[in-house]
Amino acid sequence: MLRGVVEMMFDQRDQERIRIFNDELRSEQVVQLRITADPRSTQFVAFAEDFTALAPRVHFAREVSTEVGPPALFLDKAWCYQALAASAELDPFLFLLQLLDGSAVHPLQDLRRQLGSVTIPGVLQVFIAPHCPFCPQVVKQVVVLPLACPSLHVTVIDGTLFPEMSEETKVRSAPTVILDGEFRWAGQIRLEELVDTLISRDASQLDQQALVGMLKEGNATQLAQMMLKRQQIFPAYVPLLAHEEWSVRLGAMVTLEEIADQALVVAQQAVGPMRELLDSAPESIRGDVIYLLGRLGDVGSTERLLTLLAKETDEELRGILEEALEALGCRGQQR
After folding, report:
1. What's residue 196's pLDDT?
2. How many CB atoms sit inside 10 A of residue 158's CB?
3. Whole-Å CA distances, 37 to 18, 65, 66
4. What is the pLDDT of residues 83-137, one digit of tens each?
5. CA–CA gap between residue 86 and residue 92 (Å, rounded)
6. Cβ 90 vs Cβ 52: under 8 Å
7. Domain ranges of the chain
8. Is residue 16 within 8 Å of residue 46, measured between CB atoms?
9. What's the pTM value of the predicted model, to 2 decimals?
10. Residues with Cβ < 8 Å from 127, sequence gap 6 or more?
């Protein structure tokens, strides 16, 4: 329900822009609103209610989570807003919705030609702040990239609303653009430079966030092929075998099994870090690690697995240990 004009998140000028935007939409649009236990969720709910009251052709589908993570808005699969698009930041938000709707166009031909060969996923974070003079233009430059390269994901973050994110990434000014947690640009950016970096970066240096995104989208085979092509297990990969989300762990296991089927020696590069997981991973995850050590033929883990079997009382985990030891040629052995 429309709240009083004085209480609305949008001023009179913004309200008029949103109404005009709504009239120009070709079709109804859906934005996913993630509501969490974070108290800032109330601000996102207010934003959604006010926006829909002014633009009824935009629907906010609520997803309520008990997690304490930050609230967010998701536009299609490639865009996330951890920011409230009002005042100067309203224009880029409306622009993105118009691009998705087809009611606005952008000359993407050159970008598509340049980024057409990019298969490596990329995570772009754009840190903004209210009243930042350059932020709207930078957001507009960056949000078009996934339209030219679907493997890219963009998150717009208000560093003043989420100061903990700025602190975690050591962002000191706005706008700041971060690619894969490694490359960064502060202030106004040259899009050509960002595109060149996207093309030339090393896939083996992808961070966990990028790999998690691949696995959540069902691209375990693509990740396996990327590591096989480079004959290397990426540094950020092995910890995903102990990820808190089951879907990510399953994708990571499928990836490693696929690599093992095609090049066992490459898959065995993961053995050392996996042995460390035996001691650090929660008990609920340890069985997966034990299974994979057997699957990879890690005879160096035999003594360790025999020791675990001698002490283990859980029947399910004992079964996994026995199967792994059998795969390692220790059939029937037990301390």
Report:
1. 87
2. 23
3. 29, 7, 6
4. 999 999 999 999 999 999 988 777 777 777 888 778 788 899 999 999 899 999 9
5. 10
6. no
7. 5-201, 204-327
8. no
9. 0.73
10. 157, 158, 159, 165, 166, 169, 171, 174, 175, 176, 177, 178
Cα dist. 55→59, 61, 79 in Å?
9, 14, 20
Cβ atoms within 10 Å, residue 87: 15
Fold of 5-201: Glutaredoxin (3.40.30)
Convert 35-71 into a string of H (helix), E (strand) and C (coil): ECCCCCHHHHHHHHHHHHHHCCCEEEEEEECCCCCCC
Q: What is the mean pLDDT of the chain?
A: 89
Question: How far, CA to CA in Å, does 296 sit from each of 133, 174, 232, 268, 270?
Answer: 55, 47, 15, 6, 9
Residue 332 is given by DSSP the state T
**161 contacts 85 by C-beta, under 8 angstroms:** no
Where residue 331 falls among pLDDT bands split at 50, 70, 90?
low
pLDDT of residue 7: 67
| pLDDT tens digits along 2-19 | 454 446 789 999 999 999
- Give the integer Cα–Cα distance in Å for 201 and 120: 9
Identity at 326, one-letter amino acid code: E
What's the rounded Cα separation, in Å, for the pair 316 and 30? 44
Mean predicted confidence (pLDDT) in 274-293:
88
